[in-house]
């Protein structure tokens, strides 16, 4: 399938640089069957049914953005995927100035040694010393805001809270599961009162989620890998929801991708603890989810392809054109959409 079928023009001013406040005051475009509604996230309880279940990603974003030096050269590093207790796969800015074996000096006396380059355009990095890497990152790292925000303003103290969901528990992500940024304890209470349940799973989002699709055809795109887990008890509860007639609504594409990775052709969700490279494009038959709450995605991205697979490419192109015309805010700190296929 041609990648240019998923292209669209987005005015730069539609890119949100800060989240809505309060979080659930963000706008929400609802596509339910053939209908389209302009609402807000706090209207969510009225758009779902008693017995439905929202599925959240409880991954926690780590301060994975580092600025350092190799000699006189400035080097920027974004952690991408953990390879071991002290080893990470990373993307490097000014990578031509770094060779395998070089030591990079970061702030707060944090050092790491460069390893081999990889086929994704990054390299391996091993943190030196005996302190846990988590402590080193807390000292020297910053929240890894997406490039479309970081290129427009500096990361600051507010982002430590703004770029973390209320469900964040399992440290390991280098990008937030942004659909869940809209949720507040009050909204969760309202959903509970309406008989709408919720469950959590874990998918550690990698920086590869922001990589553009460079191929001309989707068949030639190599999807990045991310590690996820659904335990046996959670899988059993999710299966029970569907068996009772409830719908599973994934909150975010990360939750959806993990659910679909863990579900067999028979529609049964099974325990899962592994990497997934699932790449969902139009023509995919969904096995696990009945709907999706998600933010608005980049043109030509794997995530825009995913929502097009769920709702139809023409429907999503029209929905995005509507959102742009109506002033919706896009991307990680932007507004939400609720997608409920017929």
UniProtKB/TrEMBL annotation:
InterPro entries the record matches: QueA, QueA_dom1, QueA_dom2, QueA_sf
Keywords: Cytoplasm, Glycosyltransferase, Queuosine biosynthesis, S-adenosyl-L-methionine, Transferase
Pfam families registered for this protein in UniProt: Queuosine_synth (PF02547)
GO terms of molecular function: S-adenosylmethionine:tRNA ribosyltransferase-isomerase activity
Swiss-Prot/TrEMBL GO biological process terms: tRNA queuosine(34) biosynthetic process
Record field: catalytic activity: 7-aminomethyl-7-carbaguanosine(34) in tRNA + S-adenosyl-L-methionine = epoxyqueuosine(34) in tRNA + adenine + L-methionine + 2 H(+)
Gene3D superfamilies membership: QueA-like
Keyword hit for Glycosyltransferase: yes
Subcellular location(s) per record: Cytoplasm
Listed name of the protein: S-adenosylmethionine:tRNA ribosyltransferase-isomerase
Top-level taxonomy: Bacteria, Pseudomonadati, Pseudomonadota, Alphaproteobacteria, Sphingomonadales
Gene: queA
């Amino acid at each position: 399938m041609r990648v240019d079928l998923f292209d669209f023009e987005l005015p730069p001013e539609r890119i949100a640089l800060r989240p809505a406040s309060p979080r659930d005051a963000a706008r929400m475009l609802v596509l339910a069957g053939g209908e389209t509604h302009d609402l807000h996230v706090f209207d969510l309880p009225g758009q779902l049914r008693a017995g439905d279940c929202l599925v959240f990603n409880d991954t926690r974003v780590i301060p994975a953005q580092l600025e350092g030096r190799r000699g006189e050269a400035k080097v920027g590093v974004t952690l991408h995927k953990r390879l071991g207790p002290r080893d990470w796969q990373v993307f490097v800015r000014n990578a031509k100035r770094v060779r395998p074996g070089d030591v990079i000096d970061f702030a707060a006396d944090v050092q790491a040694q460069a390893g081999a380059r990889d086929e994704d355009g990054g390299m391996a990095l091993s943190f030196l010393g005996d302190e846990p890497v988590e402590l080193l990152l807390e000292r020297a790292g910053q929240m890894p805001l997406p490039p479309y925000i970081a290129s427009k303003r500096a990361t600051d103290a507010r982002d430590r809270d703004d770029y973390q969901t209320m469900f964040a528990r399992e440290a390991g992500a280098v990008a937030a599961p942004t659909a869940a940024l809209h949720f507040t304890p009050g909204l969760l209470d309202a959903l509970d009162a309406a008989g709408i349940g919720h469950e959590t799973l874990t998918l550690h989002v990698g920086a590869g989620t922001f990589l553009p699709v460079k191929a001309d055809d989707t068949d030639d795109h190599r999807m990045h890998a991310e590690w996820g887990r659904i335990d046996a008890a959670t899988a059993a509860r999710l299966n029970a929801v569907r068996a009772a007639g409830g719908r599973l609504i994934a909150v975010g594409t990360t939750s959806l991708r993990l659910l679909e990775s863990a579900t067999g052709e028979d529609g049964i969700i099974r325990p899962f603890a592994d990497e997934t490279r699932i790449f969902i494009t139009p023509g995919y038959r969904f096995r696990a989810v009945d709907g999706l709450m998600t933010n608005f995605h980049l043109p030509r991205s794997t995530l825009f392809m995913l929502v097009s697979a769920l709702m139809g490419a023409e429907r999503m192109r029209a929905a995005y054109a509507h959102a742009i015309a109506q002033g919706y805010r896009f991307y990680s700190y932007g507004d939400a959409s609720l997608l409920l296929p017929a």
